[in-house]
């Protein structure tokens, strides 16, 4: 995902030009990727330039997902980027009136998406997630993966492991925070007048007890855990509200995909 600045063009001109422009930003052969873009129409008044959001994905990765879905008997209708799915889920619940940093801490990667003036300004994936934290706990205390996961989430007593567990958690979470702070620094270097109002955490990693408070203390921004079901209506006789609250942070990306409009 890359935001680039181009001369204002008609849709036909942009479509003809974008592949040549994209080659300088994509570290792969242009024939090896699927490419998409959106003109953000950021030119104001007589300005002759506009921002364009450029997205590229390796064909082998996308085709792997498409083949898996087709084998399962499903018909794929849209392929989306994590950052934009997260944005869709947040917008469906709270709108995009505020400047916010959305941070989804998944099992293997963390997605950071900074929204400003109703649009994604910075989107990046970082290859670190909560799976590595569970593995460190597992190895440190000679536990099964399930036991380590339960210990991480506070579902079993810590006992004599308190000091060691705190060391692992603080070291890992400081890396997560460090990546978010780097993204914020980059954002403020380009948009110093557009303050971020809050951090919104999601993903399985966000279920770590006290993580929102830790992020808030380290960044100086209010931090909260995202509930993508906050404004959804559901049958409480068929779906346990407690279960929804438990899985909510992990469902942010899936909710964003489900709420995106697509042509059938």
Task: Considering the chains and any ligands shown, give keywords for the structure.
264 residues; alpha/beta; Dna Ligase, domain 1; Nucleotidyltransferase, domain 5; 2 domains; 5-stranded mixed sheet; 3-stranded antiparallel sheet; 9 helices
Protein described:
This protein is an alpha/beta fold and 264 residues long. It has two domains: 1-76, Dna Ligase, domain 1 (2-Layer Sandwich), CATH 3.30.1490.300; 81-264, ATPase, nucleotide binding domain (Nucleotidyltransferase, domain 5). It is built from nine helices and eight strands. It has helices at 11-22, 59-71, 82-94, 130-141, 145-152, 162-190, 211-219, 241-247, 252-258; strands spanning 2-7, 33-39, 49-58, 100-105, 110-116, 119-126, 198-202, 223-225. A five-stranded mixed beta sheet has the order 6-5-4-7-8, sandwiched between helices. A three-stranded antiparallel beta sheet has the order 1-3-2. A hairpin with a 2-residue loop joins strand 5 (110-116) and strand 6. It is globular, with a radius of gyration of 20 Å. The two termini are 26 Å apart. The relative contact order is 0.13. The model has no long low-confidence stretch (mean pLDDT 90).
